[in-house]
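Hi team,

As requested, here is the filled-out complex form for the zinc ion run. I kept the field names the same as last time so the parser does not choke. Let me know if anything looks off before we queue the next batch.

— J.
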Amino acid sequence: MKQNYHAIALDKKDTGEMDRLYTFYTRENGLIRVPAKSIRKSEAKLAAQVEDFVLAHITVVKNYGRGTLAGAVAEEYFDGLHMHYVALSCVDHVRKVFLTVVQEQERDEQVFGLLLAYLRKIEELSDIKDHVQNDEQIKWITYAFLIKLFGIQGYVFDVKKCVACDVLPTAQTHTVFDVHNGGMICGRCAQKTINVCAMDVDTIKSLRAIYSNHLPMLSKIVVHQTVNKQLQNIVTQIEKWIMR
Ligand SMILES: [Zn+2]
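And here is what came back:
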């Protein structure tokens, strides 16, 4: 039995003499792992079609278990991001988090669309060379992607008001992000908590924007380096909390 998928190649592992086990995120069946026989032979053209982050049409022949990769035609290579250091390290980070939080064979077209939109945006930004603000933009889109992905997985955080006392944030409230308490906490309430991340008013605005806009829209927003640094701490805190 043959099955076709729209797939984004996420990972590969060498197995046996000439074989590999590929990990794809598919539109039709979510995260799947597929063995590919003899794909490491030098003449195997199939391997180039399923390099990391390539969007491809793949065919899997299924007799039992995971089946076997029988064919692949690349549709988008995203080769620009492979040549850009910041882009590649961001996408690599996304891959690690993605493979940790997303379960196998749980179809979710929203996740597929988000991942594809993310790769397209990073590819586009990788084309603009020698610009510091561009690196900041790549990081911003990466944090936005991760916070959206966490949201789809059920990890949504309150960034409207202090989760403990309902006070609205201002520059004077010294707001922090506290993953254990479910979001934003004002400086007064935060005295009782540990392991929190500082959040300036601009960072709070950026988080609200992430929750209320699609990813392509967010690339129109330009964020300051400080916002990115704070978002990085927030994302790290969420990751540690999810993977605890
Ligand atoms: Zn409070």
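Two things worth flagging: The pocket of zinc ion is lined by residues 162, 164-165, 167, 185-186, 188-189 (CB under 6 Å). The chain has a mean pLDDT of 93.

Thanks,
J.
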